[in-house]
Amino acid sequence: LPILDVRMLGAGRPFVVEVKHARLVSPTAAMAEAAVNEAAGGVMKIHKLEPCRASDMTALQRDAESHRKTYVCVCWCDRPLLLADAEALAAKGEFQVNQKTPVRVLHRRAAATRPKTVHSLQAEVLNPHYFKLRVCAEAGMYIKEFVHGDFGRTRPSMRSLLGGQVEILQLDVEGLEDGS
Hints:
single chain, alpha+beta, 33% strand
């Protein structure tokens, strides 16, 4: 399977960085932000950087799984797609997906089956074999594997829903919402 970089669009998402062995004892948040943005050369940008307490990290981890994420991806299917396929996906509404730990992360994650919720699907057929897919799903869902099926380890998947081989070509996180 191809390596795929995922972009975070929209307002971004919170993150925590622990600085070890800092050469400057007390860099300001503005100094750290400027250094990261300069080093990134426009590929990414951080803003609103501020110092945090250990309890902030705990809260960030606790709250992460309660979010909904909206993803937009460009996909390819080996069989020609019709408008009826897009309509059938939208009509599915909310449903559960069972995901075994993906093959690509088994070396660093425990083998388990995790139920995740897809809140909605919207597909736009671009031409007979290419489509744009918008997925609103529970945080923690492996979207790449939901699309291609991960050798049958994710059920249902776009592969099983469309009845053909499906590959993901581009993936963006469009938004992050508090799911509570």
